[in-house]
Amino acid sequence: MNHQLTIEPLGQTVEVAEGQTILDACLRAGIWLPHACGHGLCGTCKVQASGGELEHGEASPFALMDFERDEGKCLACCATVQSDITIEADIDPDPDAQCLPLMDYQARVTRIETLTPTIKGIFLEIEHGDILRFQPGQYVNVWLAGEAAPRAFSIASAPSAREVELNVRLVPGGKGTSYVHDGLRVGEQVMLSGPLGRFFVRKSDPRPLLFIAGGSGLSSPRSMVLDLLESGDTRPIRLIQGARTLDELYYRTEFEELTARHANFEYLPVLSSEPQDSPWTGERGYVHELAVRRFDQDFRGWRAYLCGPPPMIEASIAALMQGRLFEKDIFTEKFLSAADAGQATRSPLFRSL
User: Fold this and answer.
1) What is the mean pLDDT of residues 138-162?
2) How far is CA 323 from CA 238, 244, 281, 294, in A?
3) Which one of 37, 47, 229, 291 has the minimum C-beta count within 10 Å?
4) Structure pTM?
5) Which of 240, 187, 8, 194 is nearest to 102 (CA)?
6) Coil vs helix vs strand at 351
């Protein structure tokens, strides 16, 4: 039996199927609710429910306290409804956000490329003539063979590309990433759901853009930069890409070619652990250190988008804020995986894939 879910302050109503979570029903209707982990762990999707009955599901008692349950609060990512119900959510409308409904797709692996010793480029073609519509910076959930739960991967390609590209870093001991690197084959079919995430360029703001990326965190900034340049955006755009060694610096040639073709784009790679006797003559150090040097410690007037390992994110945020760029102009992707449940001190800024 389906039930009616009313979302305030929007005043919109959507249908919720039996066993479907509140969050899933909203996303599939193109209504965005604040969320992060998707596992009932972080409390980001907490909403106030009234006028009906619900089941809390596997909500963590730390993310949803007993007194909050008594007050009618629930976690949208794991709560299911038992009757018509109303929720009140902290929704902050953004004029640059596209209301794209979450959808399921069948896809076929068309190519697998080794981008670095630890990162594979997985290229997928959506089947049945479907098109995955997304905003650059968003991600998809992918169901891999033998896995009960999906894995989240950022989209590295531009929306105009025929194939959907995912950059997957091998995580030591990681079952999902190990399968992608060692077991996935061209021609294999996978199911994916998307788009997901609230990480996208605020195009209506004309200020120049600074992208800072490390490791496979390059995925989202690459998608964003490609889309901006394809659309003819003329504002200054800088991409700082960090890697440990030269063999981990992927898509370098592509970005150098884009720099040559677009006067408003500048590519700044930096290596933190490249041997001193190597042929590398470029910048050395960390991304936040290079940013400080290139901007002379003054980031006023820019907007920054950060994607990479949590230590890189924290160091970059500190450097940007010391350079007078404040929180409202710094954008990161907020996501927690189930593996983060026992890591209370870890920053919730980025997901670990």
Assistant:
1) 90
2) 16, 25, 27, 12
3) 229
4) 0.88
5) 194
6) coil
